[in-house]
Amino acid sequence: DLYRKVFVFRKDPSDAYVVLRARLEQPLHNFTVCLRSYTDLSRPHSLFSYATKAQDNEILLFKPKPEEYRFYVGGKFVTFRVPESRRDWEHVCASWESATGIAEFWLNGKPWPRKGLQRGYTVGATAAILLGQEQDSFGGGFDLYNSFSGELTDVYLWDTGLSPDKMRAAFLSLRLPPALLAWKSLSYEVKGDVVVKPRLRE
Known about the structure:
Largest sheet: 8 strands, antiparallel
Strand content: 35-45%
CATH class: Mainly Beta
Number of strands: 15
Helix content: under 10%
Number of helices: 1
Mean pLDDT: 96
CATH architecture: Sandwich
Shape: globular
CATH topology: Jelly Rolls
Distance between the termini: 17 Å
Radius of gyration: 15 Å
């Protein structure tokens, strides 16, 4: 249980990462991924990387610069332009549904304009899921200058699109529905220089 704890990625650039284990029985036609990050990086960095053997950017949350997030599904991406952070925690949720190809992006509990992405696509179930690196091959192929440095917490992955109420609940750390990956019952393995520490502030 990582309640009120964080992963601290101490080095910049870094070869460190965290492997997450999810029980995925079948491919995903819908999903929501949420996490909270705290960093002073201005270079590109990866937050959440879900790769299959067929597609290294099956699901990817990537920040190419301080005022932009990229959300990938099946190797294609949409861009969400955001205000440059005031050096504070940023909570992001990204959801996608195959039937409509609608991609939703929420920052700090507020929705951005929805975009279209990979309508009719299916996300593969046999996945390597990593925090802190961007996979260019299944479970590897890292570019150290895309690595994350800073603090990560509150990581979740659901096999549904969350309702607006639940998106806001995720931002506020309230009760959430059962998830494939849940911060309060996370199965993970640290690779390299990552330390689990209590959160310094709420």
